[in-house]
Every structure is written in C-alpha cells, then in structure tokens.
Amino acid sequence: MRKYPTLKDVDEMRSRGFDPSVLAEQMELAKRGEALETLVAETYEAFAGVKLGSGVGLLEANGLDDYASEQKLAEYRAKDEKLDWRSIPIEKLNRYSSSLSFFDAEGMRFHLPAFLVADMQALYEFDLIYNLVQSTLIEVQCTLLTEKQRTVVRKYLEFALQAEEFEYDHEHIRRALENYWVK
Fold it and tell me: What's the superkingdom here (predicted)?
C-alpha cells in the first residue's frame, strides 16, 4: 500500500501556500490514511495473543520453498518466532515473502497480521493482495481465522478495492470478496 499524508502534513502544506485543489486532494488522502490507521489497530486487536503453535514458521516456510531437508527445516523452525507475530522484523517479512505460499492454517493465522500491518504501513515491498485473492491455497490456509480476523481481511481488501494502485486487481478482489471473504 502507499503511504498516505497525515492531517499534520496537510496543515504544513496549507501553511506553505499549496493550491486549494491540491490541499483538498491531500485531505481526502489523509482521511484514507486515518481509516487505514484504524484498520491497523483493529488488526492488532483481532490477532492479539495468536501464537504459532505447531504451525509452519516464516523461515521454515522459506525452507519448504527451497526443498530443504528435514534437518534444515528443523533448524529453521528453531529460529522462527513462535509467540508474538508483532516481533517479526519487517526485513524478514520482505526477505521471506514467498513464505506466504507455504504456510499451513496455523502458520497463516500467526503471520498474516504481520504482513497486513507491514503492508498497511507501506513497509511491505511485495504483493500481499495476490496471496489473499488469487492463491488457490487461501481457502485452506485461512480456515482457522475467527470471524473478527476475517473481518479485518475483508476490510483490508475493501480498502484496496478503493485504491487506484490496485486497479488491476479490482476484479480479483471483488471476486474474492463475493466468493471466499464473503460475510
């Protein structure tokens, strides 16, 4: 996702004499940014206390992608964060972005909020939308999500549906909202 201006940014632009039409546009974007901040807070709340359990971890999933040996997978698993998804560094989410395709249901429930928050904060460098709307695995991977967690994902996709940057994904997003992420 893109980074949105804040109301403070718009006030600064106003004080610097920006054109009223630019200010109006930036104000609308700032409102979207505030809505996104609210959704980030809802994500933290919906996924509070979620642990990895016996699910596939971030490094372990990357090892699966690389066809690693059982021994190597166990080494990766030992290094994986298992207790607090908020502790996973953004750098790791970006480095191991392909892991999204290799999580089981527990692994997805644990890691998804980290990817969502990183994307909503414009820190995730890859396409999260694809994994949520076009992956053939999503129905299996998201079976453990609670209704509150699914609502967060729906709101994220609905937000993306209104964003120009995802205009080429709009058809896929709509279809996913109507078929899989339906209320």
Answer: Bacteria
User: 8: buried, middle or exposed (CB in 10 Å: 19+, 13-18, 0-12)?
Assistant: exposed
Instruction: Tell me the three state secondary structure of residue 2.
Output: coil
* Helix-strand-coil split of the chain, %, nearest 5: 70, 0, 30
pLDDT, residue 3, reads 84
The count of structural domains within the chain is 1
Cβ neighbours for 173, distance < 8 A, ≥ 6 positions apart: 129, 133, 157, 160, 161, 166
Is 2 part of any domain? no
Give the Cα separation of 75 and 177 in Å (integer).
Answer: 38
The low-confidence residues of the chain, meaning pLDDT below 70, are: none
Q: What is the pTM for the complete model shown?
A: 0.93
In a domain, 23, yes or no: no
The verdict on residue 120 lying in a domain is yes
> What one-letter code names the amino acid at 153?
V
Under 8 Å between Cβ of 90 and 118: yes
Judge whether 5 lies within some domain: no
